[in-house]
Amino acid sequence: MRDWARAHPIWTGIAALLVLILLYLILAVWPEWIDSILRSKKIFLSALFNGITLGGLYFLVASGFTLIFGLMRNVNLAHGSLYLMGGYIGYYVSYTTGYWLLAFPIAFVVVGFVGVLLQFFVFRRMEGEDLRQTLVTIGISIVIADLLLWVVGGDFYVITPPDWLSGPLETGIITSQRVRSSGEVTNFYLSYPMVRIVIFCASVVIGVGMWLLLNRTRIGMLIRAGVDDRDMLSATGARIQLVFAGVFAFGAGLAGMAGVVGGTFQSVAPGEDIRFLLASLVVVIVGGMGSIPGAALGALLIGLAEQIGSIYFPTYAVVLTFLIMVGVLAFRPQGLLGRT
Amino acid sequence: MAMSDFQSSIDASIARNRGRRPWIERVPPAYWVLAILLLVMPGFASNFVLYQIFGWTFILGIIASSLMFLAGYGGMVSLAQMTFAGVAGYMVAIFGDSAIDTISQGWPWYITIPLALLVAVLFATIVGWLAVRTAGIYTIMITLAVAAAFFYFARQNYEVFNGFTGFQSVSPPQLFGVDWQDAVPFYYLTLFWAVAAYFSVLYLSRAPFGLALQGVRDNPRRMGALGYNVTAHRVAAYSFSAILAGIGGILLAWQSGQISPGTVSIQPSIDILVIAVVGGIRHPIGAFIGAFLYVLLKTFAVDVLISLGLDGDRFNLLIGMGFLLVVFFSPDGLLGLWEKAKDRSRRDPLTGRPRE
């Protein structure tokens, strides 16, 4: 980070300036002219926060995808189906047991197990055959989508969070001020759904945990070695198939957990699998394939673009995310934080 | 000595040419049977079979053969072929006639059709230029993202693409006093273009451009070292594929009489890939075999499922399972299976050597 800043002083300056502007926009009481450009502060702030929290959800889905790709070069286009599966399992568990928190470990374990099955029966048989993996996983995603439709039906399901999470949270951020004629000043504060903030914090914790696991532990060392040179690692006696299965289970489990999160944020329904597959594709292409920080950056960018776009130019919000992807591809094909 | 060598080589060449029969005799009998069968088909097949089964098969086959060309000879698997087709279909509806006369310009066919193809080719060239910056698996993802972006754009834009509803009553021009939307003329129209697409892909695969493209597919660095412009060949392959896809797209708009975002959504884009892969991407005939199977399944699978006592909605499961089985066991599709079977029947089962 420091090296990068030293090497690119101008970019660092621009980034710092942007951060300052953003902080000003969040914390200050807006004068009239900003209000007239960006509508009102309340709308802007809720779009910003929605974008950041949606970015957290995208990060959960895309980090599993990018981890699997980075280590094994496996292209798992059934990742969206794993997400959807996790969402349905989460709904079922939280509906039958009444414990929302219980949905997470169960979705993680069950979907992780499906991931191990995929790795064992599908990917291990076609190592290094990109195209075949893609085609087979497209086939699997078609089959899983139809099986889920068969079993669950085409309805929308919303996972309800427990009571202690469902209310709004008063943040200390002033959205607007009203000055009475008597000189008394009333502040209006932004309130934001508690559950979104908690889930965002959880995804940050998971992201940091993943980074620590990869960079500070022995298993992480094995995984990173596998990313760099798989054959050499297996020659040193590491049981690489075990590492592969573990990473696949972890990545798939993350997708499953993200399904529970998505079901709480929005809803689970047929078609969400393709939506989240596309989202994670765009995220990892923008951020850089196989890079966890890249996935975080990409997820944040795409989430923000989607939400802020949907406020300020609602018609083409979806197209905006693809424009970002095209821009990144045109100038930095390996992705923002991808290695060349 | 040298003179007699030269003489003998000429003699050999003459002898070879004498042994060579005229081209009409060199066409394999299977081609004759197929050609005659396809030509006399309207004599005994019903309008439904001609229009819905064969018309649709030929159209999907044309679009799939554009993917077959890109993937088989260029090594670039694109999921945006249906999008290129959709762009051409949309342009015909926008510049030509449709029920939405506030948008449709109503220009004559000899302007709209070349213009539609031109726009599709331009669009594909831009997409191709973006996509070839990446390789292998990234290409699939990027073209998938492009397909999704176009789908969402067409669905949201009401000024040009007329949003969710799209364009209805898109019909072919009344050339030579024939209503080309009638079953028999439409059958011959699609047959003509299918044959043209098939032979143009076959011809191009043996032309210098196609050979260079296959070289680029197998070893881009070596081709670059030999002085070929690798990027230009790849982008040109995208442009050519868009001509085929565009023709298919225009025919598709005429066949269904409409074009809407549903035509270019993600499912049809994946269907084109399924068709090309199930048929086999080593030879252009694979695209048409795959399309025929797909159309048969799509038309009759529901009836078959219901008659077997299953739910007719499980159509996607059937298609997905079939696709999965084919790609799992034979990466070269049905053509690959056929080759394998032929190869096995030629070998002696005991020794494994080729039979005499």
Automatic annotation (TrEMBL), chain A:
Regions crossing the membrane: 12-31, 43-68, 75-93, 99-123, 135-159, 194-214, 242-265, 277-304, 311-331
Superkingdom of source: Bacteria
Keyword entries, A-Z: Amino-acid transport, Cell membrane, Membrane, Transmembrane, Transmembrane helix, Transport
Pfam families: BPD_transp_2 (PF02653)
GO biological process: amino acid transport
GO molecular function, one term: transmembrane transporter activity
Subcellular location: Cell membrane
Annotated GO CC locations: plasma membrane
InterPro entries: ABC_transp_permease (IPR001851), BCAA_transport_permease (IPR052157)
Membrane-topology descriptor: Multi-pass membrane protein
Family statement: Belongs to the binding-protein-dependent transport system permease family. LivHM subfamily.
Protein name in UniProt: High-affinity branched-chain amino acid transport system permease protein LivH
Source organism: Roseisalinus antarcticus
Automatic annotation (TrEMBL), chain B:
Name of one Pfam family that matches: BPD_transp_2
Membrane topology per record: Multi-pass membrane protein
Membrane-traversing stretches: 30-51, 58-76, 82-100, 107-129, 135-154, 186-204, 235-254, 317-338
GO MF terms, alphabetically ordered: branched-chain amino acid transmembrane transporter activity
CDD domains according to UniProt: TM_PBP1_LivM_like
Compartment(s) of residence: Cell membrane
GO cellular component, one term: plasma membrane
Entry protein name: Leucine/isoleucine/valine transporter permease subunit
Highest taxon listed in the record's lineage: Bacteria
Entry keywords, A to Z: Cell membrane, Membrane, Transmembrane, Transmembrane helix
Native source species: Roseisalinus antarcticus
